[in-house]
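Mods, move this if it's the wrong board.
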Amino acid sequence: MVLPECCLLFGGHESQQLQYAGSEHQSDLKTALANLAKQYHVYLIAGTIPMRADDGRVFSRCYFFDDHGVTLGHYDKLHLFDVDVADGTKTYRESDTFHPGDHLCVVDTPFGKVGLAICYDIRFGDLFRALRLAGADYIALPSAFTKVTGEAHWQVLLQARAIETQCYLLGAGQWGQHNQGSRETWKSQHDCRPMGQSHCRARHRVWLGAS
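Not the wrong board. Structure tokens:
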């Protein structure tokens, strides 16, 4: 199962995530997600949650749990969304709040090797090539694409990365209006096969990436 970016808190300014940030040894959000994986007996790619970095910012971290709630690996978002967009938010500066990651993550599972990437990473093809070279069969992509950029680019970028890497791309995103309507995200539940065929999942359903 794949959850979207910012799966447990989303909608306001990114800086609000600082108060909820945990550490590797103490994170209520991580514990809650691990318990859900164990309770429902699923392999869970748990969107992203904030985890403290040494410089006062946080990592946007994706944890991968097995069906017993054990952590199989984690990935910190490498490419941060510092962009001006013609929408209600207008200016996005993730680097003010988030610290970029410094490693790739490919997890070996009973259903294949799964690489992890997050949202804006999809615009950087070299990252996906590196995941494929590291053995990935699937690449999961928790996301929160804006409505403006998602409508223009989300599906075509998923298809491009799938074709380039010959991997299955598993995209799960936020959808709808947030923060009293000032922020809007694109309906971005898609999977893509290695030949580029794309399937849009129902917007209101939890997206199942391991089925």
